[in-house]
Amino acid sequence: MSRSSEVDRHRALGLLQAGLPISEVSLRMNLNRTTIFRVRQRLHETDTVSDQPRSGRPRCTTQRQDRNLVRNHMNNRFLSASASLRHTRERNNQRISANTVRRRLSTSGLRARRPYIGPILTQRLRHQRMLWAQEHAAWDRIQWRSVVFSDESRFCIDHADGHVHVWRRSGERYQADCVREHDRWDGASLMMCCCNGSLKGVYTLLAAACLDL
Fold it and tell me: Which part of the chain is the Transposase Tc1-like domain (predicted)?
């Protein structure tokens, strides 16, 4: 049936009950004759002219396949929808789109978000950083003036610089499997400093800043 308002449908029924033919009602209402006929037919079949619930487009995945999609992304939070799509096609021999994967994940509460990028710190490195901080906590401005920090050079050697998303639910930003464990600058970082007029490597003075390397 054409998308006509419920008010127009009742007006059309009123004209039909007044004895006007379908063709005349169609001209007066500027509606297709088939629409007027189906309005009357629906009234006889359902006692109403309101739209009936529609089943919609058939789902291209089963509930079991939906659970597998969610399970794959829960096991690997950084798995892209395209990669999951290829895996599903190979496993089920079924053509689905990346948008379908995103909708299934969204239904389960998973959203693609920018991950929190944190330094790679073991318990030992955390302890060493704390020791370094405690040793230099009492330094005054005069002592810090003898240290000159140079600009850092960034070398990304272990991954692409493109955006990476993580599939997570609300409140899982800092969860272990949702954190992208990397050093702060996403790669090797070189820094030299001048202390008391002599050039030294950061391994002696800035140990905490280099524990990420």
Answer: 66-137
Q: Which two tokens stand for residue 95?
A: 């053509």
Closest-CA residue to 195 (of 136, 152, 153, 120): 136
Q: Contact, 2 vs 31, CB < 8 A?
A: yes
Beta-carbon neighbour count of residue 128 at 10 Å?
15
**CB of 43 within 8 A of CB of 13?**
yes
Count of beta carbons in the 10 Å neighbourhood of residue 148: 11
pLDDT tens, position by position, 19-44: 889 888 888 888 888 888 888 888 88
String of DSSP letters for 129-151? HHHHHHHHTT--HHHHHTEEEPP
User: Following DSSP, what letter does each residue of 93-117 receive, concatenated?
Assistant: -----HHHHHHHHHHTT-EEEPPEE
Q: How far apart are CA 212 and CA 189, in angstroms?
A: 9
Burial of 105 (0-12, 13-18, 19+ CB in 10 A): buried
C-alpha to C-alpha distance for 152 and 190, rounded to whole angstroms: 6
Report the amino acid identity of residue 77: R
Query: How wide is the angle at C-alpha 163 spanned by C-alphas 166 and 154, nearest 5°?
Result: 120
Model pTM score: 0.47
Q: Which of 34, 35, 56, 38 is nearest to 46 (CA)?
A: 38
Residues 63, 35: Cα–Cα separation, whole Å: 37
